[in-house]
Amino acid sequence: MKMKKIEWIILAAVVAVCAGLALFFYWPRSGDTVAVVSVDGTALYRIDLSRTARPYTFRIEEETGRPVSFEVADGRVRFVEVTCPDHICERTGWCGAPGERAVCMPNRTTLVCYERGELPPDDGVRWITESDHP
Ligand SMILES: [Zn+2]
């Protein structure tokens, strides 16, 4: 069976539309990601990853009992300078796309990235921005 030229064109168009839709739905949309820092399962801080014109770090210690720092740069965030025995959290590296996460089990601290529209409810969670950390 030989396909006519018009059939090839229709097939190519269908494939192109599907590929376009797939990209639209699954392509990580940078600039629309918010990271949430939780300790003991309670969300404490939100980091707006769409506003990271300048790299900065922030540190929590009261909440965990031991120093845990985060580095924010280029729309991504990672654990740095964490006081924990295994450093799995730091080895996980950067989180910048919705669904990406890093966990520090010894400090009961999690870092999870969300699409802005899919953030869990805001229960007095504090926003961290670079202006807080000159
Ligand atoms: Zn750790």
TrEMBL record:
<dbReference type="InterPro" id="IPR038690">
    <property type="entry name" value="NusG_2_sf"/>
</dbReference>
<keyword id="KW-0472">Membrane</keyword>
<feature type="transmembrane region" description="Helical">
    <location>
        <begin position="7"/>
        <end position="27"/>
    </location>
</feature>
<protein>
    <submittedName>
        <fullName>NusG domain II-containing protein</fullName>
    </submittedName>
</protein>
<keyword id="KW-1133">Transmembrane helix</keyword>
<dbReference type="Pfam" id="PF07009">
    <property type="entry name" value="NusG_II"/>
</dbReference>
<keyword id="KW-0812">Transmembrane</keyword>
